[in-house]
Amino acid sequence: MKKKLKKLIKLYESVIYGTEKEIGLFNCYDTYYEGCWDDRLEKIEKLKNKLNKPKKESKPITYLHRTKNGKKIRICDMDDNHLINTLKMKERNAENGITIGYSGGYHISDFRYDEETYYDQDAIDEIGNYKYYVLEAKRRNLDFTPKYKI
Predict the structure, then answer these.
(1) Neighbours of 53 (CB within 10 A)
(2) pTM of the model
C-alpha cells in the first residue's frame, strides 16, 4: 500500500510540476487560476510527511510474570536471560504436556472435577501468555526462535 501511494504521489507531482521531458500544469496555466491548487498540494505534502515519518519504538509489554518463588514482575522488566529461559521452560512444558483441571471441581475426589492433558501447540494455546513473552523477546531483538506459533 505504501509503495502504491508513493507512486501515486510521484505521478501527481509529475503532472503538476512536470518532468525532465514534459512540462507540468504549473508551467503553462493562466495566473487567473493561481491558488486553486493550494489545498491539493497541502494534502499531498501531509501524505508525504506521514509516509516519511519514522516508526515509533514499540512499547514494552507490561504483563506480569510470576517467578518460581512467587514474586510478580513485569515481563518488560525481566532480564534477557530470564526471559529466554522462561520461554524455553514453557516450550519444554508444552512438549512434556500440561494437565488442566476444569468443570468446577478443585480436587480429584470431587465428582465434578475433570482434567485434560494438552501437548505441543495445544498446550501453548491453553497456557495463553506464551505470546507476550515471545513478543517481548522480538521487541528486544533477542536471539530466540519460537517453536510454536503465537
Answers:
(1) 8
(2) 0.55
Contact of 146 with 134, CB cutoff 8 Å: yes
Domain boundaries, the chain: 2-52, 64-139
What does the pLDDT look like over 11-33, one tens digit per residue?
778 877 788 888 777 777 666 76
Maximal CA-CA distance, the chain? 92
Q: What are phi and psi of 48, to 5 degrees?
A: -65, -40
What are the tens digits of pLDDT across the range 105-137? 566 666 666 788 999 999 999 887 899 999 999
The three cell numbers of residue 87 are 520461554
CA distance 131 to 146: 10
DSSP result, the chain = -HHHHHHHHHHHHHHHHB-SSSB-GGGT--GGGTTTTHHHHHHHHHHHHHHHSPPPPPPPP--EEE-TTS-EEEGGGS-HHHHHHHHHHHHHHHHH-EEEEESS-SSTTSTT-EEEEE-HHHHHHHH--HHHHHHHHHHTT-S---SS--
